Amino acid sequence: MIRKTLAATSVALAALLAGCSVGSTTAAPASSVPSASSAAMPKSEPVSLDIPSIDAHSSLVPLGLNPDNSVQVPPVSTPLQAGWYENGPTPGEVGPAVVLGHVDGNKQKGIFYRLKEMKPGDDVDIARRDGTTAHFQVTKVDQVPKDVFPTDAVYGDTSDPELRLITCGGAFDRAEHSYVDNIIVYAHLVNRAR
């Protein structure tokens, strides 16, 4: 089952993104969002991401697994490129779709440089190959240490279409050449634009 694969591979997420910059955020309370299961969309590959509140716009490349079963990430040499985890639900389908991006890399700001600034109620639009757009609203933003990554909260089954945006944050560990935390944005599908 895909969900079991997601949970198993997400253990390796602790070393998810190299070249991330320092960031901090506070956990925001989840807002009550009505069930969106009736608004679930059929499977369709995502093609682009638009987050107006943080001026983040990117095409989306598919990401799979590395040989060690860790989740692939877009190349650090192109830090403005975001990617979606193709072994999970596509954005708009029931379940948690996952989009990954760098906070920085190659000595420049990344696509998710300002992810830590997102707040509940912010909009995230993902254009899909079938010509529809999945419209999400943020419900929560967390900063968590990579060594206690919330696998079930990020990858566990959900009854509604949801979205997770993930990047690095926190202090930079010079010895490990990575950041100690992850910034995770949780969002629910609220409707679909045509």
UniProtKB/TrEMBL annotation:
Molecular functions (GO terms): hydrolase activity
Keywords, sorted A to Z: Hydrolase, Signal
Full protein name: Class F sortase
InterPro entries in the cross-refs: Sortase, Sortase_dom-sf, Sortase_F
Organism of derivation: Amycolatopsis echigonensis
Domain of life of the native organism: Bacteria
Keyword Transferase (UniProt): no
SUPFAM superfamilies for this protein: Sortase (SSF63817)
CDD domains: Sortase_F (cd05829)
Secretion signal, residue range per the UniProt entry: 1-27
Keyword Cell membrane: no
